[in-house]
Amino acid sequence: MNPNDHPIALWPASASASAVETDWLILAFTVLTLLLVVPIFIGVTIFAIRYRDGNKVNRQHSDRRDRMLELGWMLIPFTLTLFFFAWGARMFMDHKNPPANATRIEAIGKQWMWKFQHPGGEAEINDLHVPTGEPILINMISQDVIHSLYIPAMRIQVETLPGRYTQLWFQADRPGTFRIYCSEFCGTDHSAMDGLLTVMTPADYSDWLAHSGSSASMAEAGKSLFSAYGCTGCHRGTDTDRAPTLAGLYGRPVRLAGGGTVAADDSFLRDKIQNPGHNPIAGYPQVMPSFNGIIPEDELTRLVAYIRQPPTTRKLSALPTPLIEAPPSIVAPSSVLAQRSPLAEPSLP
Ligand code: HEC
Ligand SMILES: [Cu+2]
Questions:
Q1: Whole-number CA gyration radius for the chain
Q2: Which residues have CB under 6 Å of ligand 1?
Q3: Predicted pLDDT at 84
Q4: Were both Cys, which of 11, 61, 157, 293 would link to 150 (CB 3.0–4.6 Å)?
């Protein structure tokens, strides 16, 4: 499928209301800038010609003073540009505040590909399928260097950083295929780090989900990892003898051993698993081992998805560590995903 590029690709196609508004903002601000600047240049040219060296014209200062005129040409442009400041600030705040009901997709940037995973566990590489009319929140992280997820059709671009989650969101309003880029120079094959965003009607999207062959949701996969990595050995459901319970932890403030609190957000959870000694929490000896370099990035994302679930829908396994195999049977390991070419994705209508 070819992306819906504009015939003359000077102006990228747009596929969301906010993309259209961004275009208006930029267009209107360009027009305003021209309105404010062009008369000055015309004036400079006229005066340069009229008062050029040797031209016999009256060079006396005029006695006329007009305070209203002076105030006018200061205050009117100032107010006009303030209006654009307010408009831009409002859009900025919108971009920074995803709606609470957004569908959350996890993304991992690595040299040189984009990996996406849907809440139901469906994984894609350099391909992203989303429905129209639904806010989509992309929670992302980098596995190596800084990348930047850029979707021109949505007019958004946000960095992915190693070791910290960042987010962007958009709501597509028409089906189509659009380009995804990495817009941060990230090494040799940076220019090949691109992909396709396929926006589908909600019906086509559920059809796609149904045929994508995922056997476990993110949270279910995370649950299996939770026991496979032996977390259950210490975090035993609601039993808090050896380690704090993780039920209901997400989003709560956590008291630190060194005093103060920190919000248990995605980055905190990930950091805790990677460097437990970094933020020791109050009330427990710091005995949790570091899983740095042991748990790959995509599995960390699933573990966090599991811990993030609200306690009502989650049952943190209260059983002792089951001696089950690591999860390849449940989720394709990243090596398998990495070999999958984007062309080998389930074929779509
Ligand atoms: C050897 C026992 C042990 C193991 C194994 C263990 N933890 Fe922990 N964990 C702890 C203890 C003790 C704490 C609280 C003290 C601390 O680390 O600051 C803790 C804290 C945490 C916290 C922060 C809890 C809070 O209230 O802020 C998270 C999240 C967490 N562990 C997740 C995991 C995950 C995920 C695994 C498996 C990959 C795991 N733990 C494995 C003992 C363990
Ligand atoms: Cu990149």
A1: 27
A2: 229-231, 233-235, 243-244, 246, 249, 254, 264, 269, 272-273, 276, 280-281, 284, 286-289, 291, 303, 307
A3: 93
A4: 157
What band does 312 get if pLDDT is binned at 50, 70 and 90?
A: low
Q: Are 177 and 197 in contact (CB under 8 A)?
A: yes
Residues of the chain with CATH 2.60.40.420: 1-51+68-215+332-349
pLDDT in tens, 49-78: 999 998 888 888 888 889 999 999 899 999
Give the number of the ligand closest to the Cα of residue 185: 2
* Overall average pLDDT of the 252-275 stretch: 88
Return the pLDDT at 336. Answer: 37
Nearest to 266 by CA among 314, 302, 216: 302
What is the pTM assigned to this prediction? 0.74
Q: Tell me how far the alpha carbon of residue 72 lies from the centroid of ligand 1, in angstroms.
A: 64
Instruction: Tell me, in angstroms, the distance from the centre of ligand 2 to residue 111's CA.
Output: 6
Question: Which one of 231, 238, 284, 288 would you pick to mutate in the ligand 1 pocket, going by the greatest count of ligand atoms within 8 A of its CB?
Answer: 288
Cα–Cα distance measured from residue 154 to residue 17, given in angstroms and rounded to the nearest whole number: 9
Q: Give residue 283's pLDDT.
A: 83
Please tell me the distance between residue 280's alpha carbon and the centre of ligand 1 in angstroms.
Answer: 10
Q: Classify domain 1-51+68-215+332-349 by CATH number.
A: 2.60.40.420
Identify residues whose C-beta is under 5 A from ligand 2, the ion.
Answer: 147, 182, 186, 193
* pLDDT at residue 111 in the model: 92
**Ligand 1 atom nearest to CA at 225:** 38
Q: Which of 273, 270, 249 is nearest to 261 (CA)?
A: 249
Is CATH 2.20.25.10 the classification given to domain 218-330? no
